[in-house]
């Protein structure tokens, strides 16, 4: 039997409260971005809805692009890599073979993601995570230095590909004109207001774009963050991070100094509509994500930070259920089989709606976890992963789920 290095020792079980709170925080940031795509087809066509062209609309779009776009997805991916190591250690404690267990988990995620795409929202991340997790699984024995070097190479290659595309490729060769994009967006928004068949068709129509984005940008950057999260878990980053105030301050200073100007430049250049802007965000977004982590961890460990933990931690503990629940809320609010608000809600109201829905999720999550160890989606995924029904603790359902239950 090979001996683990110090960086590969099992992570302490139970010391994941900060991770759960961070995961809940990441879900809020992801929803702020995703709800704009759920509410109309204009963002997906890389154009603004001309019905919302007031200065306040432009300001909200700018802030969402600068502070949220491409930042919280990275944080969520980092936490997925962190939880990967927790799952590895949980398998070891249970005496279960890790690789078959993780293969089943990836397959379960992919099945859930496929259903998510077809039934709820085409901007799914679960299928991407499921596929990229196979690469992480193949690399889970590599040393920290190799993992970190691989992450850096991935980011360098993604950035280089974007720079080459921006400098030498003519977007008009494969992208519709602005007027054509507006026309397509208007037609697709009307489709969102149709019946079940129309909505299914709309979801499936976006599959090609989802695959291209996953292969060229979202998948590689997710893998890079998976690897960094794996390193962080091996080194027990969150076991006492809240006590390292000087380190957290340095991360804040560097992260905000690089990440905020990068986010502003990304938004100013046009966000997702501009390849140069995307390249800027790829380079600078990890710094802003790190600054967000440091800031939240510091807030969680101040005397009055208990309320923030009580809000965020339950959401993060059943993150998979809440991620799917956000898409359910979007379908009910905006589609034709629900209230039918697609194309009728301003950016500012969407931002408020995202916060309100998240607050409801926080309250429901806290209520649910008083009597259940797992969220509904977590229960199904754990059932598929372990190939056995999750058992109750000796005290009923009151104990929190073990670390490997987190998504």
Please tell me how large the radius of gyration is.
Answer: 21 Å
Shape: globular
Estimate nothing, just give the exact number of structural domains. 1
Strand content: under 5%
Distance between the first and last residues' Cα: 30 Å
The helix-and-strand class reads mainly alpha
Largest sheet entry? none
Poorly predicted segments = 1-15, 393-400
| Helix-residue proportion | 55-70%
Q: Give helix and strand order, one letter per element, not per position.
A: HHHHHHHHHHHHHHH
Number of strands: 0
- Please tell me the overall pLDDT: 90
- Compute the number of helices: 15
Keywords: Membrane, Transmembrane, Transmembrane helix
Transmembrane segments: 21-42, 62-82, 102-120, 126-142, 149-169, 210-232, 253-270, 276-300, 320-342, 348-369
Protein name: DUF418 domain-containing protein
InterPro entries: Bact_Transport_Assoc (IPR052529), DUF418 (IPR007349)
């Amino acid at each position: 039997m090979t001996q683990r290095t110090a960086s590969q020792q099992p992570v302490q079980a139970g010391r994941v409260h900060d991770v759960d709170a961070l995961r809940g925080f990441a879900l809020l940031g992801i929803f702020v971005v995703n709800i704009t795509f759920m509410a109309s087809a204009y963002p997906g066509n890389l154009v603004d809805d001309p019905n919302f062209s007031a200065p306040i609309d432009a300001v909200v779009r700018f802030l969402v692009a600068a502070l949220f776009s491409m930042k919280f997805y990275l944080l969520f991916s980092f936490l997925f890599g962190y939880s990967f190591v927790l799952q590895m250690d949980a398998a070891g404690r249970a005496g279960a073979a890790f690789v078959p267990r993780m293969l089943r988990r990836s397959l379960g995620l992919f099945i859930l993601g496929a259903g998510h795409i077809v039934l709820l929202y085409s901007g799914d991340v679960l299928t991407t995570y499921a596929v990229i997790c196979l690469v992480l699984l193949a690399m889970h024995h590599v040393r920290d230095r190799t993992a970190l070097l691989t992450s850096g190479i991935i980011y360098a290659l993604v950035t280089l590909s974007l720079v080459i595309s921006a400098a030498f490729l003519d977007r008009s060769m494969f992208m519709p004109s602005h007027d054509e994009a507006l026309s397509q967006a208007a037609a697709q928004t009307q489709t969102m207001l149709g019946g079940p068949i129309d909505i299914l068709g709309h979801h499936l129509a976006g599959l090609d774009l989802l695959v291209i984005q996953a292969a060229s940008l979202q998948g590689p950057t997710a893998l890079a963050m998976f690897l960094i999260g794996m390193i962080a878990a091996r080194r027990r980053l969150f076991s006492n991070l809240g006590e390292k105030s000087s380190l957290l301050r340095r991360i804040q200073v560097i992260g905000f100094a690089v990440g905020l100007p990068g986010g502003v430049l990304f938004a100013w250049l046009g966000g997702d509509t501009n390849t140069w802007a995307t390249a800027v965000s790829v380079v600078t977004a990890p710094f802003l994500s790190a600054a967000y982590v440091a800031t939240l961890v510091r807030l969680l460990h101040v005397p009055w930070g208990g309320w923030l933990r009580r809000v965020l931690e339950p959401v993060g503990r059943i993150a998979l259920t809440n991620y799917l629940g956000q898409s359910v809320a979007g379908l009910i609010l905006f589609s034709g089989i629900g209230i039918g608000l697609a194309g009728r809600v301003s950016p500012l109201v969407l931002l408020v709606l995202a916060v309100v829905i998240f607050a409801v999720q926080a309250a429901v999550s806290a209520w649910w976890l008083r009597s259940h160890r797992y969220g509904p989606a977590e229960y199904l995924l754990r059932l598929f992963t372990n190939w056995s029904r999750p058992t109750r603790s000796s005290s009923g359902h009151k104990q929190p789920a073990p670390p490997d239950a987190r998504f």
